[in-house]
Amino acid sequence: MNLTEMRARVREDLQDTDSENYRWADDEVDGAIDRVVTEYSLHAPIEQQDDIATTDGDTELDISSLSGLLEIKSVEFPISQNLQYPQRFEYWAGHLYMQDKGDGEDARVRWLKKHTLAAESTTIPTEHEEIIVLGATGYLAMSAAAYTVDRASIAGRHATINFKAWGKERLDRYDKKLKAVSRTSRVIPHQLYTED
Known about the structure:
196 residues; alpha+beta; three-stranded antiparallel β-sheet; 4 helices
């Protein structure tokens, strides 16, 4: 599902499908979707591995190619077919430094990446698309509830109450689903390294 399809799906749940009289502008819907994609990514990020060339005599690795970087998990250098050589590393202000100096060969970086939901494609698994819909609709409903407070409307104060109750119910479901898919709630095996 791409961004256009997700936006339409969110509007369906919100019953906001009259293009001549949208309650929420596309920018508002897209903003809510992007917020949820970011939150979803923090719970269930994409696990990536890249080999990056080191610079002879320098401890810094050029990680400018790591688009959507959320977190560096490990750095291995040198890379061996049979043995693992984990590096102590520091990631600060967009720069990654190993403990050892490079020699021009590759270091292996394992990292977590933010999901994308663009006009042409997405990295969000089909089975998790409903999580994005729940979160976006919940946030938009709550924003509508806040907006209608102290404003006259045909439905009066009941419009605010209905938006708030419906939005809260959606966000409660969203929160439970996020916790269920959370990377931190899964058992992830880690290898313990010892120095000889």
